[in-house]
Each structure stands twice: as C-alpha cells, then as structure tokens.
Amino acid sequence: MDWKKLLSEERLRPSTRDSRFEGDKRNEFESDYGRIAFSPAIRRMHDKTQVFPLTTDDNIHTRLTHSIEVQSVAKSIGFDICSRDKFLNHVEGDLEGNLKKEQTLKEYLIRRIPTILASTAFCHDIGNPPFGHYGEDIIQNYYKELFSKEEYKEIDLTKEQKEEFINFDGNAQGFRVLTKLQILSDRFGLNLTAGTLASFLKYPCTSREYNSEEKGDYSNKIGVFESEKEHLDKVREKTGLEKERHPLAFLMEVSASPFFGPLKSRGFRLR
C-alpha cells in the first residue's frame, strides 16, 4: 500500500471552484467533512433511533447522536495514530514528497487522518434503514419471500440485482447516498475525495465479488451496489486498493465498537 495514494485528494469528478472560494484554507478532506455535515441525509438521522422509535424521552440515542459520539472517538484515535513514531516511520517514505517547506510529517498528517476518520465516522450509519440492523433483516426477508413467489420469479432483474435486495446492507446504501443520492449538481453525489470514500467502505465489494470463489474479509457482505460499481472502480484506481480495505476503515470500525452494547442499552433502561 502507498500512503500517498491512500490519502488521495482526488474526487470522482474534478472539483470546480470559482473566485469566491479563493480564501478557503481548508484542505480537500476538511471540505469533505463540511459536505457531509451540511447534507440532508445527516439531518435525517435525527429521526432514527438506535433501539426503538417514537419516544418522548429526550435522552434517547438517535442515529445522529450516536454518529457524533463515534466521530469524537474516531478523531481522537486519528490524533493518537499521528503522534506515534512507529506509524510516522512507516509512512514517511510514501509521503515525504508531499510535505511543504519546513512542514513536519506529523503536521501534514494531523490535518488529514483525524479529519478523514471524523468524516467517515459521522456518516458511517448514513445508509442504515429505520430500526438499524433489524430493519435490514426486514428488507432482506421481504425480498426473499417476494422472489420465491411464482409470479415474481421472472421479474426483470439480474441475478446480481436480486442478490442486492436479498442481502440488503446499510453500508451499500450509504455508499449510494454519498456518491449518487445526495446530489450537489450531478450524478456524483457529494463528490467526496477517493481517500474519504475508501475509508468509508467497510466492505468494498459488489454482489459479483460477494459470490465469487475468491472471498476475503473485504467481501463478507455486499458493500457496494452494482449501480455504483463505476464509483468503486474509480476509488480503487485513485487509492491503489483492489480487493482489500483501506487501513483507516478498520480504525473507523473500531471507533464504533464501544457503542454496540452499553450506550444502546441505555434506551432499554429508559423505556
């Protein structure tokens, strides 16, 4: 892996900035965070709860609250990683050509890795349906039953498309939201950087790869719909990743893990 590529600031579509943005001192990853923070999809998470819906108690964890908390943990991990000599020594050879005059490697990374992790943590649940993983099960079971009915066996869908419904996953829907459904001006969605999108992808795998004989940790679930395969291919090309996950995707996943039990259980106690 080449960290120069892993931290690619290239976007799916080249960004077009006019003179109004000449004073913007943010780097591309900091711009990504702003695009995510101001997206309608983020605001909609306020109405999705972690445990149960339609509560009148204002202490309940919503998806938005959860995402803000995970974001805080992820950013802290990013700062910690950027302060570790072992990591700095590991990436130094890949990134030394990117440093500005008198800029240290730590200074360079501290403006990038914590921000990428904050962005991906902020939107890691952006594609989840209501009721979280239970909602995914409902969708999966509905389509399993639907496609088993005689009148729907010849429905005009490819095998891969049927697999996407039967194995519906919020991660794939999240990638679709970020790269297509949250339209700024065209079909590239929020048009985030390849580095941020690669770090978001928990399972950089289409239904074809999911069903292939060569499976790995990256393909335990369908993480990208065939309709967004073009975007996945571009992300892979720009980051140098093939059938593997971005290192920061693992850190983002770790950031969310402390919340699976204790904080979600608060909802049950309040109920």
UniProtKB/TrEMBL annotation:
It comes from the Bacteria. The keyword Membrane does not apply. Signal peptide: none annotated. Keywords: Hydrolase. SMART domains: HDc (SM00471). The keyword Hydrolase applies. Residues 59-200 form the HD/PDEase domain. InterPro entries: dGTPase, HD/PDEase_dom. GO terms for molecular function: triphosphoric monoester hydrolase activity. NCBIfam families: dGTP_triPase. This is Deoxyguanosinetriphosphate triphosphohydrolase, putative. It comes from Fodinibius roseus. The lineage of its organism: Bacteria, Pseudomonadati, Balneolota, Balneolia, Balneolales.
